[in-house]
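Below is a filled-in request sheet from our internal design queue. Each sheet records the structural input a requester submitted and the sequence that came back. We keep these sheets so that new team members can see what a complete request looks like end to end.

REQUESTER: design group, bay 2
PRIORITY: normal
MODE: inverse folding
CHAIN LENGTH: 579
BACKBONE (tokenized):
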């Protein structure tokens, strides 16, 4: 069964792609003028069947004893594999040329013949046995089964390695050196970028011939025979439809009237050629179509124009893809920005609520104690002084909160009036502790200092740096429990910075809040805050002086707020970098 199927298939190939194209080019045979060529094709295919069977018998009779049947099949597959580089190169590489493909095929087949076919002749006695064992001319490096000393491989793998190496190498090398013709460039572009073409536009533009619809229909009937057109051919290729129906279907799909179309266009010629190729092969169909139409060549200028236009279309397509991607990226950025704005709007509302609450607390205290003083004129002097002290302290707190909000706005707007100069942070810390000492005493919170005798001066605004220390001390005092709280202020000198740390034994800060706690509109997840704007403005002030601020904390183990300010040349360098 395999012999029958393969023989019929090979006979069709030999007839359609080898013999008929040659016969069509023989002028004195005048095949194009014959009315029915189907009988001639049938005789050619029958003769090809006999010839192929005879060749197979001869090969098996003289060489079959040297190989098993499976090995004979593998030898054939190794030969067929020589077409692979040119096929795949034509599909994916526009740089491949006709000469490169021919060179690769020729050298690949020569190596296949040398490493598989000739050794079989030698083993069968048709060539000297030394050819297979000692190599050509007695040169061991030319042994067909161990070419150039390559051993350890079976015969088929050895032949495939060398033949494909030579085939691919020659195909690539010759294609790179060779200069393709304009027609090759056009064909390569249309073939490699086949999915980028729309319909038959490019093929139509390359059409420069003339032929009538009736000539094309008659040509199909003449080659296949009218009966074959209406039955066998139609059944095989058109789903049991008449050949006339095929042309009518073409006219309906393209919305044209073939009767009113005296001259066939390029699309119709290609359609007829494809119909014909199904029966007599692509090569024969192309040759026959070329023989019945009046054509003119495509000039180099037209080819280059088509190439330029194709390149422009591809470039425009790439630009559209890039712009589409940029638009998608911009849309994603806008969506992210919109989400961020919504988040900031929510944080802003929470911030305003917190600030309002913080402002209302001292205002409530001031109002309450003022009403007591107003409603009780005979209040004792000691109590009156105590209430007045509370009113003054809450008023100062209220003023401080308002000033912080205003300062934060000024810093962000770039309107802050900086009083820059050398600052001794040790003195700043001592003054801040003295300012807030009474608050720690009232709540019985232990406040200690760990300060060196001398530290280098830093460049900054003394009042603003003191405000940073006061903010951090106030924050620590707020979260410490009365009579059990402990706060310590330390000062250390690093090679380039002065580091101030304020630690407490409060509830601590969750890890997820430590990165965002210094943001203006942020509250920690448990909803508690110290000074609502203190940490945000402290960060702005420290960063303005070229330093940084951070927090280290574990829940339930307190927190350590630290900030660093550069000294000497480091301060000047960082200030210049910010400018």
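RETURNED SEQUENCE:
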């Amino acid at each position: 069964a395999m012999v029958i199927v393969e023989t019929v298939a090979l006979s069709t190939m030999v007839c359609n792609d080898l013999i008929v194209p040659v016969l069509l080019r023989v002028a004195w045979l005048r095949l194009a003028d014959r009315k029915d060529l189907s009988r001639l094709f049938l005789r050619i295919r029958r003769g090809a069947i006999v010839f192929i069977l005879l060749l197979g018998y001869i090969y098996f009779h003289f060489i079959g004893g040297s190989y098993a049947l499976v090995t004979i099949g593998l030898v054939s597959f190794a030969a067929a594999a020589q077409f692979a580089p040119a096929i795949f190169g034509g599909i994916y590489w526009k740089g491949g040329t006709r000469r490169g493909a021919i060179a690769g095929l020729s050298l690949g087949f020569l190596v296949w013949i040398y490493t598989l076919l000739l050794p079989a002749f030698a083993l069968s006695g048709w060539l000297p046995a030394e050819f297979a064992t000692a190599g050509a001319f007695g040169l061991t490096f030319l042994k067909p089964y161990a070419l150039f000393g390559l051993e350890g491989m079976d015969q088929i793998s050895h032949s495939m390695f060398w033949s494909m190496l030579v085939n691919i190498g020659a195909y690539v090398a010759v294609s790179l050196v060779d200069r393709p013709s304009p027609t090759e460039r056009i064909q390569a572009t249309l073939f490699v970028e086949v999915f980028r073409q729309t319909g038959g536009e490019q093929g139509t533009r390359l059409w420069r011939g003339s032929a009538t619809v009736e000539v094309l229909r008659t040509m199909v009937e003449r080659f296949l025979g009218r009966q074959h057109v209406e039955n066998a051919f139609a059944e095989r290729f058109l789903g049991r439809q008449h050949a006339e129906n095929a042309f009518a279907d073409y006219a309906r799909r393209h919305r044209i009237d073939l009767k009113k179309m005296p001259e066939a266009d390029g699309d119709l010629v290609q359609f007829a050629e494809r119909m014909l190729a199904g029966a007599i092969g692509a090569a024969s169909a192309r040759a026959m179509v070329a023989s019945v139409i009046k054509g003119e060549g495509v000039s180099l200028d037209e080819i280059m124009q088509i190439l330029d236009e194709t390149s422009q279309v591809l470039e425009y397509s790439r630009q559209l893809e890039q712009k589409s991607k940029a638009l998608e990226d911009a849309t994603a950025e806008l969506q992210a920005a919109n989400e961020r704005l919504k988040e900031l709007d929510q944080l802003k509302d929470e911030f305003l609520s917190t600030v309002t609450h913080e402002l209302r607390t001292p205002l409530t205290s001031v109002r309450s104690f003022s009403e007591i003083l107003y409603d009780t004129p005979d209040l004792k002097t000691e109590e009156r002084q105590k209430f007045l002290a509370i009113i003054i302290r809450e008023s100062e707190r209220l003023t401080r909160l308002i000033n912080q909000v205003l300062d934060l706005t000024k810093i962000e707007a770039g309107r802050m009036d900086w009083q820059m100069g050398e600052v001794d942070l040790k003195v700043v810390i001592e003054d801040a502790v003295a300012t807030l000492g009474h608050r720690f005493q009232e709540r019985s919170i232990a406040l200690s200092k760990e300060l060196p005798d001398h530290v280098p001066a830093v460049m900054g605004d003394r009042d603003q740096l003191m405000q940073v220390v006061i903010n951090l001390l106030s924050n620590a005092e707020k979260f410490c429990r009365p009579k059990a709280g402990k706060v310590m202020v330390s000062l250390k000198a690093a090679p380039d910075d002065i580091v101030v740390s304020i630690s407490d034994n409060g509830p601590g800060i969750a890890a997820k809040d430590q990165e965002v706690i210094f943001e203006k509109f942020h509250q920690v997840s448990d909803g508690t805050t110290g000074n609502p704007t203190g940490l945000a403005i402290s960060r702005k002030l420290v960063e303005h002086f070229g330093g940084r601020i951070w927090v280290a904390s574990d829940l339930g183990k307190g927190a350590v707020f630290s900030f660093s300010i550069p000294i000497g040349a480091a301060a000047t360098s960082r200030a210049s970098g910010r400018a």
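SHEET NOTES:
- The two ends are 89 Å apart (CA to CA).
- The mean pLDDT is 76.
FILED BY: M.R.
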